[in-house]
Amino acid sequence: MLKSKFSKTAGRTTAARQGSGNGGGGYEAVGWEFRPGGMLVQKRNSDRNSVPVSKIKVRVKHGPSCHEISISPQTSFGELKTTLAGQTGLHPQDQKLVYKDKERSSKSFLDVAGVKDGSKMVLIEDSISRERRVFESRKIEMSLDSKASIAIAEIRPQIDKLAKQVATLEIEIYGGKKAEEAVLSSLIELLMTQLLKLDEIVAEGDVKSQRREQVRRVQKYIETLDRLKVKNAANKVKAPLKYKQMHSSEKMPFTAIHFLLRGS
């Protein structure tokens, strides 16, 4: 029966209605749409010039409390849940709204369900939904922690290698020898790169502590290199040739990675 009725309506998709603002001779197109539940209703006009729909007041009972909400009848139950979340502290997904002894879907609309001014409904906390949401949230956190832990594990060996180079330079420079300025600058740049990588890692709990530990290590080595630059500038005796620099014809710039330490 509904299919037959709709086929007749679909043949003209819009209905012609005589307008009162066009001198009696104008016509206004009225569209149709399906609403939840299969009901065919007049399509709502979203034009700014359309007459605004008057709000209604509904009373929502939640435990011993009762909340009066002023809302448009064309609002969905999902939007009503979002409004109630601010007053009850319940996440919208953890709410069940019961109207006329029937739980209403978040996608359903108030006016379609018959909600009117002064209507009453009951809000119930959905403990199963809350537990499921918390569980899913924890799964996501565990996944992020796992990825963060792997990222830190990949960065740590790089920091260890740079730390050895800093330690060797510290012995040389405080022993009175002078190192190339480029070596010190390059080491600082490489450590800063590792610091930026660590900063991009999102972690919580124990993994966050691991990340913080590596950040402190990098900062300590950078501070050491800054002090070494001052000491190195005062030294006059150059260190014996034990660094293998790249030839000037090569395109890559000279960095601390491009020298070999004695005994390595």
Brief write-up:
With 264 residues, the chain is of the alpha+beta class.
Strand segment tally? 10
User: Helix content range of the residues, please?
Assistant: 40-55%
Radius of gyration: 35 Å
Task: State the strand order across the main sheet.
Answer: 5-4-8-6-7
Name given to the CATH architecture of the largest domain? Up-down Bundle
Mean of all residue-level pLDDT scores: 76
Distance between the termini: 88 Å
CATH class of the largest domain: Mainly Alpha
Going by CATH, the homologous superfamily of the largest domain would be BAG domain
CATH structural fold name of the largest domain: Methane Monooxygenase Hydroxylase, Chain G, domain 1
Shape designation: rod-shaped
Which sheet architecture does the biggest sheet show? 5 strands, mixed
Overall structural class, as computed from helix and strand content, comes to: alpha+beta
Overall domain count: 3
Helix-strand pattern: HEEEEEHEEEHEHHE
Task: List the uncertain runs.
Answer: 1-30, 241-264
Strand content: 15-25%
Organism: Actinidia chinensis var. chinensis
Keywords: Chaperone
Pfam families: BAG, ubiquitin
Domain Ubiquitin-like: 54-124
What report would you give on this structure?
Helix content is 45%, strand content 19%. It folds into 3 domains: 2-42, no CATH class; 56-125, Roll (Ubiquitin-like (UB roll)), CATH 3.10.20; 133-258, BAG domain (Methane Monooxygenase Hydroxylase, Chain G, domain 1), CATH 1.20.58. The strands form 3 sheets. Strands 5-4-8-6-7 form a 5-stranded mixed beta sheet. The chain has helices spanning 2-10, 77-88, 127-174, 181-199, 205-234, and strands at residues 14-18, 27-35, 39-42, 56-62, 65-71, 95-99, 102-103, 120-125, 177-178, 237-238. The chain is rod-shaped, with a radius of gyration of 35 Å. It has 264 residues and is α+β, with helices and mostly antiparallel strands. Helix 3 packs antiparallel against helix 4 (181-199), helix 3 (127-174) runs parallel beside helix 5 and helix 4 runs antiparallel to helix 5.
